[in-house]
C-alpha cells in the first residue's frame, strides 16, 4: 500500500491538491501574515496554489481572511503577491 498523500484545499480556487504542490500562508503568534515556503513555521495556516490567480481569488473572496481569522490589509496582499512572484522565478 502506498504512502498517503496529505491533501489541502486552496483558499482561492477551492480545489483539493497535494500539500507539496501548494504554499502555506500563516498568521504568526505576533499577528503577522507571511508566506511559509517550507510549511514548518509556527502559526495558523491556510493553503494557496502556487499561482497568482489563486492568490488574487483568495483576496477577492476573503478566503484567506476567513481561514486565518484576521483582517488582512492591502499591503500584506501586495507583499504576498511579490513573494510569490519571487518564489515562482526560483522554481
In short:
With 91 residues, this protein is an alpha+beta fold. Helices cover 36% and strands 24% of the residues.
Explain what you see.
- The chain has 3 helices and 5 strands; from the N terminus they run E-E-E-E-E-H-H-H.
- It has helices spanning 52-61, 63-68, 74-90; strands at residues 7-9, 16-18, 22-27, 33-36, 44-49.
- A 3-stranded antiparallel beta sheet has the order 4-3-5.
- A hairpin with a 6-residue loop joins strand 1 (7-9) and strand 2.
- The mean pLDDT is 90.
Topology of this structure?
Layout: E1 7-9, E2 16-18, E3 22-27, E4 33-36, E5 44-49, H1 52-61, H2 63-68, H3 74-90
Summary tags:
about 90 residues, two-stranded antiparallel ribbon, about 35% helix, alpha+beta, globular
Radius of gyration: 13 Å
- Portion of residues in helices? 25-40%
H/I helix tally:
3
- Indicate the multimeric state: single chain
Number of strands: 5
Amino acid at each position: 500500500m502506498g504512502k498517503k498523500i496529505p491533501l489541502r484545499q486552496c483558499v482561492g480556487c477551492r480545489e483539493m491538491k497535494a500539500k507539496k504542490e501548494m504554499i502555506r500562508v500563516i498568521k504568526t503568534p505576533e499577528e503577522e501574515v507571511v508566506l511559509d515556503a517550507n510549511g514548518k513555521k509556527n502559526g495558523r495556516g491556510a493553503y494557496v496554489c502556487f499561482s497568482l490567480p489563486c492568490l488574487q481569488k483568495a483576496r477577492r473572496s476573503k478566503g484567506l481572511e476567513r481561514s486565518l481569522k484576521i483582517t488582512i490589509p492591502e499591503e500584506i496582499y501586495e507583499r504576498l503577491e511579490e513573494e510569490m512572484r519571487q518564489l515562482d522565478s526560483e522554481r
